[in-house]
Amino acid sequence: MKDANPKLKFHDMRVGLEYEAKLVENLTRTQIVQYASGSGDFNPIHHDETFATKLAGYPSVFAHGMLTMGLTGKLLTDWLGDGVLRKFSVRFVKQVFPGDSLMAKGIVRELKDDGENGLVEIDLVTTNQRGEPVVTGSATAALPR
Amino acid sequence: MSDGYRFCVDRTGILLFSSALGETNPIYWDEEYAKKTPLGGVIAPPTFAVSSAHWDPNYALRGVRKIPAPPPKPAAAASAPVGQGGGGAGSGGGLNLTRILHGEQRFEYHKPVRPGMMLTVTNRAGKSWTKEGKKGGTMRFSESISEYRDEKGELMVTATSVGIVTEKAVQS
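Above: the input entities. Below: the structure tokens describing the complete assembly.
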């Protein structure tokens, strides 16, 4: 496969197959600040406690949605390999706050033929320590036969 | 309207972004390891494209950085509404930062983003709609679509961000 380093082959996959991983334990404000710097998103709602609580009315600062998406992306690359993703989409359904711990799960929804590769359609959900979904989404990966 | 901006991809930028995700995958920084894989070198992680915000002259959430971004490449041709930044939630001047949310994010990958690439990022508005929310009052949704192209004009990544402006703060 060009431009990819898959960990699995298409025939390793079957509909309903699941992969689960812990993404982060006790998310720190430090990591949120580090993500602000890495991504360039310096919205004060993610690092300025006074802004987040007094002006915006949130219980505290909270993580960038894109931090949670990035962490969820780790599930995909750890499971399937590097350079294999064709699509990755999420919906941000709940804020992630400092101290939260996140788990993510991918489930194979569909397997498709794409000539030289097989396409794997995956449903994703990332949940917090209370089991509440914070991110839901889907991904498509191309795996060699 | 804008012809896009340039996004200089280097190993340091990829390292800093990957570190913030707590990454342990050496494909993002270890050139010796990466050379031995079929990828042949370091690549960027799947959500890295949003860090083009660092280079987006219209990005509203850049902190104190005032350095102007480099001028766009003449070859780039796409229209973008003023104030729409690449990737991040609710980019755009004059927004009330207490009332913007990132609703959705979608990526389409065409080729891996690699250090050394000078990407041109163009941005355009997509669909927009409104919805009555239970907690946030009337919510205005708007799509912002960014395309990332290499020096040859080849599409590497397409990123679609759905921003939400709410009437009031949406508490969890």
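Note for the figure: The longest helix of chain B spans residues 11-20.
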